[in-house]
């Protein structure tokens, strides 16, 4: 379908990755709890907007790199795999107290909440590198649709993200208390870390016939 492979596996992986507590989760919870539901929704819109920017950049850039240069593909593959494996190990070994404190977030207007959410996502180089490492694993080597499969996968990842984030906004009080549990945080870190490591190892096995 449109040059995409294992789409349902991608959806499942996206859901698991999106529900894992992280900086975006903490940001959304903090805005929802301290500024209300509207601010929480604006923070979701901001983060998703940043994710869509990364989707477009990754789709256009990856389609050119992967289809025109075998060397570039291998460079991206090794960097992406190394990053995913490192991220997985770091996630497994992470401690609950390493997460950012929600109490440090100050009150801002909804417009600023949106812009801050978007810019913190857009300006995070780890997000861009994650897109480079994650999405290509689900694109067919023989696909002839250019950037379309990359963009569709990015939109799918963003869609699963926005659904989860809206649930966080609606149930922020109960969810926030549970996410602050060190036991649950540890379990989620181990699950996500294992996913990252498996994806990194799988990326190392990828080979494509690309003209240099």
TrEMBL record:
Topology within the bilayer: Multi-pass membrane protein
A GO term, aspect molecular function: amino acid transmembrane transporter activity
Alphabetical list of Pfam families matching this protein: LysE (PF01810)
Residue ranges of the TM segments: 6-29, 41-65, 71-92, 113-135, 147-172, 184-204
Major location category of this protein: membrane
Cellular component annotations (GO), alphabetically ordered: plasma membrane
Subcellular location: Cell membrane
The entry's keywords: Cell membrane, Membrane, Transmembrane, Transmembrane helix
Protein known as: Homoserine/homoserine lactone efflux protein
Species the sequence originates in: Paenibacillus nuruki
Lineage: Bacteria, Bacillati, Bacillota, Bacilli, Bacillales
């Amino acid at each position: 379908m449109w040059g995409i492979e294992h789409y349902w596996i991608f959806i499942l992986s996206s859901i698991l990755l999106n529900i894992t507590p992280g900086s975006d989760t903490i940001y959304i919870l903090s805005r929802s709890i301290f500024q209300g539901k509207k601010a929480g929704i604006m923070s979701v819109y901001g983060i998703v907007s940043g994710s869509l920017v990364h989707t477009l950049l990754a789709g256009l850039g990856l389609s050119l790199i992967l289809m025109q240069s075998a060397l570039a593909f291998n460079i991206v593959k090794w960097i992406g795999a190394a990053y995913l494996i490192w991220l997985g190990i770091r996630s497994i070994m992470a401690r609950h107290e390493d997460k950012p404190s929600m109490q440090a977030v100050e009150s801002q207007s909804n417009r600023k909440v949106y812009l801050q959410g978007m810019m913190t996502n857009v300006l995070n180089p780890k997000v861009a590198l994650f897109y480079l490492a994650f999405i290509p694993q689900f694109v067919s080597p023989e696909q002839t649709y250019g950037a379309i499969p990359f963009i569709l996968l990015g939109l799918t990842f963003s869609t699963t993200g926005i659904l989860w984030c809206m649930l966080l906004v609606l149930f922020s009080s109960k969810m926030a208390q549970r996410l602050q549990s060190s036991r649950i945080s540890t379990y989620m870190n181990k699950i996500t870390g294992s996913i990252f490591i498996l994806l990194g190892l799988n990326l190392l096995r990828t080979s494509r016939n690309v003209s240099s």
